[in-house]
Amino acid sequence: MTGYLDHLTVERGLASNTISSYRRDLRRYTEYLDAAGVGGLREITESDVAGFLAALRRGDDDHPPLSATSAARAVVAVRGLHRFALLDGLVPDDVAAEVRPPTPARRLPKAVPVESVVALIEAAGAVEGPRGLRDRALLELLYGTGARISEAVGLAVDDVDRGQATVRLAGKGGKERIVPVGSYALRAVEEYLVRARPELAVKSRAGVRGGALFLNVRGGPLSRQSAWQILRSAAERADGTGGALATSVSPHTLRHSFATHLLDGGADVRVVQELLGHASVTTTQVYTLVTVDRLREVYATSHPRALS
Q1: Hey, which residues are catalytic here?
Q2: Which pLDDT band, with edges at 50, 70 and 90, does 105 fall under?
Q3: Domains of the chain by start residue, with CATH
Q4: Per residue in 111-131, pLDDT tens?
Q5: What pTM does this model have?
Q6: Within a 10 A sphere around the Cβ of 281, how many other Cβ atoms?
């Protein structure tokens, strides 16, 4: 198992969070095999792999039943392990090849209306001092580029090219992409860099020059968890305007809204795919279902003969 995880880390370049998830899934797989009296890779049969999947869905005294999504991730990890073992000559056959992960129910991404995005950003910027400037710049950048929160907090100052109005994002698997940045986000980042970041950076040994773009109050790089809390806190403050954002936001809210609003505005799905950094256009096409739903709603409420 260690060799497989090293392969994923070094050769495949998977993110640390993904590696941690695979490690947990494979540890549970090993525990299941031990309990079943299976002593090594060569002793595992297809029935063992299928039985593990059934156990994941069923749950036990120590583990609650897993959803189709979580069980599918665990099975993918197990299938990868057996494929690696075959290619490495450790086993003669891939006993997991025919065990299919359960198909998760297709969930549509939750986007929020443009006016709610504006309310979020305004609420983030309402915090006094450098934090407000930082929080506004962060949310403007998330919505203006469609970046994942992990990509945004991973930005260095030099990753934002204010002259070219672009930002360089490091996506999954270390793949980089260049994304245009709108004037609102650029202006917010500029204001943060001039008026807020130097004050935050004073508290860090790294100093003002170089380093992470977004800093915490101690002058260190802003964490993904802190960025998510900034979004959630902004949603709670924005709810004072009569909305219901606090119950609908997620770490991907602004990313989903970015994609949906682009498609609503007529953007080509393959352009949106490139902007989001999706490896396959199939992943991006789920957003087209959202826009079709919106079109159907507008049609039903606007066309004189839409309803019987």
Answers
A1: 148, 172, 252, 255, 278, 287
A2: low
A3: 2-87 (1.10.150), 114-300 (1.10.443.10)
A4: 899 999 999 999 999 999 999
A5: 0.66
A6: 12
